[in-house]
Amino acid sequence: MDAEPLALPGLPFALRPYGPDGRWAYADGTLTGRAGPRQDRFVPPAGESLESVSDAPRLLGAPPEGDFQLIARVTVGFGAAFDAGVLYLHVGERAWAKLCLELSPDVPTVCTVVTRGHSDDVNSFTVDGDALWLRISRTGRAYAFHASRDGARWTFVRVFGLAAAERPEETLVGFLAQSPTGEGCTVTWEGIEFRPYGLTDLRDGS
């Protein structure tokens, strides 16, 4: 039986679970999800395929066409290397991207993955503590990742395109929890906000 869609205040689209059971719940402005043991979504650069076991709980929905920003403050219950809370972008089975607050491998770090058939893996900067604001933006055919310690001043992380980005009707955005080497990881997202417009400057975050 398909799970019921989850409606969050402020999001103009419903969210549906994908992948393993994430125990998704929403209450008092906080979304909670949990990755199980050794769950991740990553296609090794030297590998040949996305194995069925290489997956992690995702809660995703289809944004309206046009530019947008998805913002949330993520808090991660770190327990093992590469545990992470993620904002996730999906435009095809082998075309997707992750903006992560990740224990990489023993220091909280802003990390990104862009998958175009195979995944890359980039560390940006370290973070004090287990919480950070994250933002995915779409402006035209470009996507951008930014992070912020206070939700007001944003640090540019990455700008990129995806092969399927010219088909915005297939785009999904939302949330992912992962625990590639551990026994599980609980993540919360607060202050979730959707803005139906892009950025003036993808690099400075304005």
Global shape:
globular
The largest sheet is:
8 strands, antiparallel
Strand content: over 45%
Helix content: under 10%
Secondary-structure element string: EEEEEEEEEEEEEEE
At the third CATH level, what is the topology name? Jelly Rolls
Q: What's the Cα radius of gyration? A: 15 Å
CATH class: Mainly Beta
What is the number of E strands? Answer: 15
Identify low-pLDDT runs.
none
* CATH-defined architecture: Sandwich
- Mean pLDDT equals 91
| Structural class by sheet pairing and helices | mainly beta
DSSP summary: helix tally: 0
The total number of structural domains is 1
Q: Alpha-carbon distance between the termini?
A: 43 Å
Question: Would you write up a description of this structure?
Answer:
- It is a single chain.
- The chain is an all-beta fold.
- It has a single domain, classed as Jelly Rolls (Sandwich).
- It is built from no helices and 15 strands.
- The protein has strands spanning 16-18, 25-27, 30-35, 58-61, 68-76, 84-92, 95-103, 108-116, 118-119, 122-126, 131-139, 142-148, 155-160, 172-178, 185-195.
- The strands form two sheets. Strands 1, 4, 6, 7, 8, 9, 10 and 14 form an eight-stranded antiparallel sheet that branches. Strands 2-3-15-5-11-12-13 form a seven-stranded antiparallel sheet, with no helix packed on it.
- β7 and β8 form a beta hairpin.
- It is globular.
- The N and C termini lie far apart (43 Å).
- 39% of the residues are buried.
